[in-house]
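Request: When convenient, would you put together a sequence paired with its structure tokens?
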Amino acid sequence: MLPDGTSQMNSRPIRHLQERVRTFTWTSTRAMFRIAIILALALASICVIVSHYLINALGKGHQSGFAAVGKGASFFAEHAGPTGVKLAQIISARRDLFDPRCLAPLERLCDTANVPSKREVLRTFRSAFPNEPGERLLEIDCEPIASGSVSFVLRARTIRNEDIAIKFLRKNVKEKILIDIAISRLIIKLVSIFPATKSVPLEEIFNSFSSILIEQCDMRIEARNMIDLSPLLEIRIPILHDDLIEETSLGMEYINIRSRISSEEIPDSDFRSYALFVLREVYNMVFVHGIIHGDIHPGNVVLDDRNNVVLIDFGLVVRINQIDRRRLRCLFFGVITGDFKLVSSVILESASSIPREINTTLFEASVERLVSTVRGVTVGDFLVTEFAYKLFEIQRRFGLRGAPSFANAIWVLAMYEGLVRARFPSLAFQSEALSILMKPYHNQSRSVLR
């Protein structure tokens, strides 16, 4: 049952896992095994990327190799656990960067990764609901309707004859995520040594993101995320069943999913309408509400049988405080309008350290050049990560230490970009933001910089 207090709901298990991350030991057999798997995944990922571009360079006679590369990447990702599957889900949306034949096997991992056996399903179900079917549930279908590395979903029927979906946390997934975080933290420390990454607060960004990964291990937190976002958005979010919310399971209404919005079967005109609708919802989450769905990959943005856009899977939700949200609005407004002085002010205001001898005139000139290259461009001529890197590079040149507060928004916008960039390159994402940014700008944006 979902407790009334949010802090009481999530503090004990999350603090326990965070403490285990800090006191992690590398000597256990399980840890060594996971290390070997992730190193193999890293090597396989490099091979996949190199193979993709080699095949592309060789020409049409070798194009059949794309499918083989995709199948190999899918195999390695699925067996690497939560980290591998999540990377595959993110990459699967980037049809603007990779050949679709290479991505097709990875798209499967968006909703059918590591499908559990009937034995595992029954064991997990009986552990979560030892007295069911009988008290609340009339029957349960042991064939998962969706499956990922962290959880899987079953269809069930309540004693009130309602069709519902129940999401179950997988066994030992907490330990896998814990080990993945520890390994990733080591990699981050190594990468941070290089001069090119000095201006990027990699460790702070990673610490923020790792806490969100840990929160996936408590379904009550996911329920709270859904409760908080439901009244704020127009997009359809599944309705929860309060009597079926536990730490390892989450009951909600069953939605008959027609297809993903990214499906090739969706006409281009319809896709553009759906893409605009989702973009406005993303902007509202980032700039207005500060509660952001952080996992917008193709499997989580779908259409129901009435063609309503549905957002599912709220395990990864990031929250941005009011000050950082206002700074984001200023930054975005400055880029859209060409106000490089406003962009410069936001960067300086949000920096964690500023050298005394900084030349603000040269700094503003560098920001002006960057802003002028992206102002007014459509999504087809823009890459969120490339822009963010250039921004961090300017900070590095002037001795600034970037703050991690914008990283979560960059992450979400980059994931949305992957959904639409290949199929809707003419999307004017900057002008779409103005309807949300204009009203509060004069009242709120400048006050942040005082």
Q: What stands out?
A: The chain has a mean pLDDT of 81. The chain has 16 helices and eleven strands. The radius of gyration is 23 Å. The first strand starts at residue 137 and ends at 140.
